[in-house]
């Protein structure tokens, strides 16, 4: 049995915040931000939007792409670090209700920016036991947790959701290999205080994301190389066999450093962070949806997705894109 991605979808909030707009309140410029990150703008959710609402938009688009109805879905996994509620109910349960996916189990998975990769592999493992159509969603509203006075972090992030439909069949291809890893020794490099470590009698305050940028950059370059080379070695492939690599859209300079380190062409890496920023768990599925709909990823292409983030977590997926061959039914209209 092979597990294929049979539908993709994404959602970006309507509001676009440019570097120039940020520069009006921060000691920075568009040139400085772009030269250090490759980002020119990002989408920011409206005050009345939520992570679950963004996830629902992306999920509906993915279901339409796969030609499935919500009641056919048996499992929903939402990878997020910015759930609607602090602990429970899960964002996935809110998505399940909003979609009308009445037959689906639902839960959240938290592995920060690597969350979508972790969720894909968790879903693939569960589908070996119960091969039901599955929705895997990456959704994050980073604008609600960043410190908008910290120019070193707030310039990086945006809001978005991306989703895929997974289906199992006997057509060779789909997800072949996965590498999931973590390094808890770097837990404090990207963190957000609060949770059970905070005493119930302590003053209540809004906790924002804190990040040690240079250390994170160096970590990301190292593990990106490690994961991608590991996936190729396991499969017996070379980098030249890859039609496309979709990285976590954290910083264009990270991807450029990886390409130099590996001695491979930058053009193979699909990047869209120039107009989205870092959307955490949403970044890979949003970029994947764009690549699929633009025709950059074609039937029978060998492709990889690589993520890294807080935890520290990192990992990757290698798959053979099968297009309609991996889809046992006629596709529905694109959303």
Show the helix and strand layout.
Blueprint lengths: L1 E10 L3 E4 H5 L6 H8 L3 E4 L6 H16 L8 E5 L11 H9 L5 E5 L5 H13 L6 E8 L9 H4 L4 E11 L4 E9 L7 E2 L18 E2 L1 H23 L8 E4 L4 H11 L10 H4 L6 H12 L7 E8 L3 E8 L15
Parallel strand pairs: 4-5, 4-6, 11-12
Antiparallel strand pairs: 1-7, 2-3, 6-7, 8-13, 9-10, 12-13
Helix pairs in contact: 3-4, 7-8
Short account of what is shown:
With 335 residues, the protein is α/β, with parallel strands linked by helices. It is 31% helix and 24% strand.
State the strand order across the main sheet: 1-7-6-4-5
Q: For this structure, what is the CATH class?
A: Alpha Beta
CATH homologous group name:
Thiolase/Chalcone synthase
How do the helices and strands follow one another from N- to C-terminus? EEHHEHEHEHEHEEEEHEHHHEE
N-to-C CA distance: 29 Å
Structure classification: alpha/beta
Average pLDDT metric:
92
Q: Write down how many β-strands occur, each being a DSSP E stretch of 2 or more residues.
A: 13
Q: Which consecutive residue ranges, at least 5 long each, have pLDDT under 50?
A: 329-335
Number of domains: 1
Q: In which range does the helix fraction lie?
A: 25-40%
| General form | globular
**Main sheet summary:** 5 strands, mixed
CATH architecture: 3-Layer(aba) Sandwich
Strand % is 15-25%
Instruction: Give me the CATH fold name.
Output: Peroxisomal Thiolase, Chain A, domain 1
Number of helical stretches of at least 4 residues: 10
Radius of gyration: 19 Å
């Amino acid at each position: 049995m092979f597990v294929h991605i049979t539908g993709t979808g994404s959602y970006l909030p309507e509001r676009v915040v440019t570097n120039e707009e940020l520069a009006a309140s921060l000691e920075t410029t568009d040139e400085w931000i772009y030269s250090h990150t490759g980002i020119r703008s990002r989408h920011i959710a409206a005050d009345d939007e939520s992570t679950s609402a963004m996830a629902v938009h992306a999920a509906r688009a993915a279901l339409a792409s796969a030609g499935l109805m919500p009641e056919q879905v048996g499992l929903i996994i939402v990878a997020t670090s910015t759930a609607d509620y602090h602990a429970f109910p899960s964002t996935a349960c809110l998505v399940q209700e909003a979609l009308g996916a009445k037959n689906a189990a639902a839960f959240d998975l938290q592995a920060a920016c690597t969350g979508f990769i972790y969720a894909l592999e968790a879903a693939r493992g569960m589908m070996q036991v119960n091969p039901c159509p599955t929705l895997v969603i990456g959704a994050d509203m980073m604008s609600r947790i960043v410190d908008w006075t910290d120019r070193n972090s707030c310039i990086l992030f945006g809001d978005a959701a991306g989703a895929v439909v997974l289906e199992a069949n006997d057509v060779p291809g789909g997800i072949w290999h996965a590498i999931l890893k973590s390094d808890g020794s770097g837990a404090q490099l990207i963190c957000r205080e609060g949770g059970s470590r905070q005493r119930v009698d302590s003053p209540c305050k809004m906790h924002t994301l804190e990040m040690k940028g240079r250390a994170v950059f160096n970590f990301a370059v190292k593990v990106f190389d490690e994961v991608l080379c590991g996936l190729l070695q396991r499969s017996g492939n070379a980098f030249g066999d890859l039609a496309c690599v979709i990285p976590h859209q954290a910083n264009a300079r990270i991807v450029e450093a990886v390409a130099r380190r590996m001695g491979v062409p930058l053009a193979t890496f699909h990047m869209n962070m120039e107009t989205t920023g870092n959307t955490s768990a949403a970044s890979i599925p949003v970029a994947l949806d764009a690549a699929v709909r633009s025709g950059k990823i074609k039937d029978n292409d060998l492709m990889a997705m690589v993520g890294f983030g807080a935890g520290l977590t990192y990992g990757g997926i290698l798959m053979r894109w099968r297009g309609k061959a991996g889809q046992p039914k006629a596709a529905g209209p694109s959303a």
